[in-house]
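Researcher: Batch entry, complex prediction.
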Amino acid sequence: GAVVSQHPSWVICKSGTSVKIECRSLDFQATTMFWYRQFPKQSLMLMATSNEGSKATYEQGVEKDKFLINHASLTLSTLTVTSAHPEDSSFYICSAISGGGRRPYSNQPQHFGDGTRLSIL
Amino acid sequence: QKEVEQDPGPLSVPEGAIVSLNCTYSNSAFQYFMWYRQYSRKGPELLMYTYSSGNKEDGRFTAQVDKSSKYISLFIRDSQPSDSATYLCAMSGGIQGAQKLVFGQGTRLTINP
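Model: Structure tokens for the complex:
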């Protein structure tokens, strides 16, 4: 159980284009999803917290107009990198948690997708 | 000082050895402690999840939490080459809430056949 699927797994695109990454919880309803960024040989850095039906909460230093997050259903959250540039190239990973009606203090662990490797030329 | 400290390694041990991985932290409000395993170019996979102090065992894996020392450990018994991966500790709780994780840097582990 607790499977999170992320798509695509790898994308290469030209500078200036927008890229959409999908994160789906396959066997549970995810009231909260998280988006992380990971640079080579470094740990995960939280970008934003996404709650179903409401606006995402972005971490300090993350541009909300550049990284658009939509969590329109209990099983799907999307991250759109707008007007991507080479410095946006990274490994983006989502995670999901089932709120169980006890948010924001749910004690359920986060389950991660397999990540999306984004390369901007 | 980082909120969570973890030796990045690399750590290399022979097959069958007992592996000890650990993290220290500074925020006494942390209550939830996790260990994740991450293979190259993959997302983290949850291995162990514990609340507050104590031990938890799952197969070859044992997690220990000592809140008085702000120290957590993961032990791997009878290590296998398939255990070669990066191991991330993570924790949450307190003012940031139970959901927001703070990760260690990760320890790269290699098990040699």
